[in-house]
Specification:
This protein is of the alpha/beta class. It contains 17 helices and seven strands.
């Protein structure tokens, strides 16, 4: 017997047997448990039943998250899906209940080899501009592309994708029954069509050195689209690791569907459905527990997706600018307002992501103290004695000033009448 509970259950069963002649003491000694332990186990039966009922109810929620949209998920995927359902459940609890009720999650197996294309190249390889810095440049800066082979009725079909390395969004994809370069070109064309407005002349499209990406057609299309080319080192899959990982997860989650595909159309329908799920509903741990599309919205607007509990507002850029600028200048070692910027060419100045990096490295300063006190007050926490004293002296910079909307200003102006003082300091 593996557990004490199983041993106690066996003792109770033996005692219920009419032919049993052994006492509780004898049975406990045979089972290797104490009598006090057995009696405690008997007395706590109702509590065990209550715990079992709670576990079963929680497991039903886990099952619902696990089966969401028909794709199996691991512990973290279940945790994030539950958050989107408005349910907070500890990762350890999810793992315990999955083990208890024998619910298994898919485990990715390592690819034993990497199939490289070695045919004659028509163009030249590009320099590796990424150098595995996939996320530090922000959204729409580094785009990864590659091709994968998908089994289909004893043969293969092929999928080309373009992935934003920062947000992990699939920005464009195309499928084909052949390895002709056309479907790779189509992927780039779809990218420009649907996301061209969010791209810049600094955007890099990064690939391996396969035939499709060294062809003159591909090179010309990328250049005409005002994108920069970048390529991995030959035979080094780690230089395009997020893209390789994406294909691995996709095939794992579609593994149960692939054998049932009887045509290219059926395969494409499944891929289309999974891509929609991936971008909109497949949460990722490193993306603030959001889906790729939700994460892009979050980091570009600062707004956490609807349905989630919003964090309290702790910073007002307009009000806090005098507090933020001095420590920012200290990090940069100069006054950033003096760095030249050309509005016509959109060059120079301080890049937003560089500014955020400096902002996150401010350390202890007046602004940090202001944010700490605002955070405590927003969450209803009690201020320390020195914090209360500091807040009393500096409440004018800690308290956020209420700003009226344009509609509110207009209404108040009507109430006040002509010739009255302007609202929010505006005439």
């Amino acid at each position: 017997m593996d557990s004490a509970g199983e041993r106690f259950e066996a003792i109770r069963a033996a005692l219920a047997d009419r032919n049993n002649i052994l006492t509780v003491k004898d049975l406990c000694e045979l089972a290797g448990v104490s009598r006090s332990g057995y009696y405690n186990w008997v007395r706590s039966e109702k509590n065990r039943e209550l715990r079992e009922a709670k576990d079963r109810a929680a497991f039903e929620q886990i099952l619902e998250a696990y089966r969401f949209r028909g794709y199996a998920k691991g512990v973290r995927g279940i945790h994030m899906r539950l958050l989107h359902m408005g349910i907070r459940m500890n990762v350890k609890k999810i793992r315990r209940l999955m083990r208890k009720y024998k619910l298994t999650c898919p485990i990715r197996k390592p690819n034993p080899y990497r199939r490289l294309q070695r045919s004659i190249r028509m163009g030249s390889a590009a320099e590796n501009l990424v150098n595995r810095e996939f996320e530090s440049h922000g959204p729409r800066a580094i785009l990864l592309t590659d091709i994968t082979y998908i089994p289909l009725c004893g043969r293969f079909c092929y999928l080309s994708t373009i992935l934003d390395s920062c947000t992990k969004q699939v920005l464009a994809y195309a499928m084909s029954e052949s390895l002709e370069v056309d479907f790779v070109l189509e992927t780039v064309q779809l990218l420009v069509k649907h996301h061209g407005i969010s791209l810049s002349k600094e955007t890099v499209i990064h690939s391996d050195q396969g035939t499709h990406y060294t062809s003159l057609k591909f090179i010309q299309l990328v250049e005409n689209s005002a994108l920069r080319r970048s390529m991995s080192r030959r035979g080094n899959c780690w230089d395009n690791a997020p893209q390789e990982s994406f294909f691995g997860h996709m095939k794992d989650e579609l593994a149960s569907e692939i054998p049932g595909w009887t045509s290219f159309e059926a395969a494409k329908a499944s891929i289309d459905r999974w891509m929609d799920y991936y971008n909109n509903d497949r949460c990722q741990w490193d993306l603030a527990k959001l889906s790729p599309n939700e994460y892009y919205h979050y980091i570009t607007t600062g707004e956490y997706p609807a349905g989630k509990k919003k964090s309290p507002k702790l910073v007002d850029w307009e009000q806090d600018y005098p507090l933020i600028l001095p420590p920012i200048n200290r990090v940069f070692g100069q006054d950033i307002r003096g760095i030249p910027y050309d509005a016509e060419t959109n060059t120079g100045g301080v890049h937003w992501w560089t500014f955020l990096g400096a902002y996150n490295d401010l350390g202890d300063c007046t602004f940090a103290q202001v944010v700490r006190i605002r955070d405590k007050k927003a969450r209803g926490k009690t201020l320390e004695k020195d914090e209360r004293e500091w807040y009393r002296r500096n409440s004018n910079i800690v308290n956020m000033k209420h700003k009226l909307s344009q509609e509110e200003e207009t209404t108040i102006s009507k109430w006040l009448g002509a010739g009255k003082e302007p609202v929010n300091g505006k005439c």
